[in-house]
Amino acid sequence: MSGIPAVTAVLHDTPYLVTLSDDLGHTWQADEPVDVGGANAGPAPDRLILGSLGACTAITVQMVAARRKWPLTGIRVELQLNPDGKPESGNDIVRHVFLEGELSEEQRAQLLKIANACPMHKLLTGEVRVHTDLR
């Protein structure tokens, strides 16, 4: 089990191109699309959030199905942020979960509950406090 998750984001002289690294040694990039001045060299921050939720959903569902020895053979999660435009307050994430395999309706219903209980879903739907300082 890993320790406290930690990510560092560094932006140097290339506009909007951010190099991210984590405490486990992974490195990846984020950028903005060309139409807002970026080079589209990596996903934009909003897509990273959607990707985190999608990955967590798929992983959590697979873990539970494997533990219960259910015949889940594949998972696809499609996500959109504010597909009907930005609401007056808050934001809307629409998540479609596609399950492959010979699952019963009861198993499918249980896996939907599991999807809604994945750690990123809980983080995004719970209270989040961000404490910021300058160093």
Overall description:
This protein is of the alpha+beta class and 135 residues long. It has two domains: 1-42; 44-135, GMP Synthetase, Chain A, domain 3 (2-Layer Sandwich), CATH 3.30.300. The chain contains three helices and five strands. The chain has helices at residues 45-67, 105-115, 119-125; strands spanning 7-11, 18-22, 27-30, 74-81, 93-100. The strands form two sheets. Strands 1-2-3 form a three-stranded antiparallel β-sheet, with no helix packed on it. The protein has a two-stranded antiparallel sheet with strand order 4-5. Strand 2 (18-22) and strand 3 form a beta hairpin. Helix 1 crosses helix 3 (119-125). The longest helix has 23 residues, at 45-67. The mean pLDDT is 96.
In percent terms, what proportion of residues is strand?
A: 15-25%
| Termini gap | 30 Å
User: Count of DSSP helices?
Assistant: 3
Kindly identify the CATH topology of the largest domain: GMP Synthetase, Chain A, domain 3
- Content-based structural category: alpha+beta
Count of the separate structural domains: 2
Q: Which architecture of the largest domain would the CATH scheme give at its second level?
A: 2-Layer Sandwich
What order do the helices and strands follow? EEEHEEHH
Helix proportion range:
25-40%
Low-confidence stretches: none
CATH class of the largest domain: Alpha Beta
Lateral arrangement of strands in the main beta sheet: 1-2-3
CATH superfamily of the largest domain: K homology (KH) domain
Based on Cα principal axes, name the global outline. Answer: globular
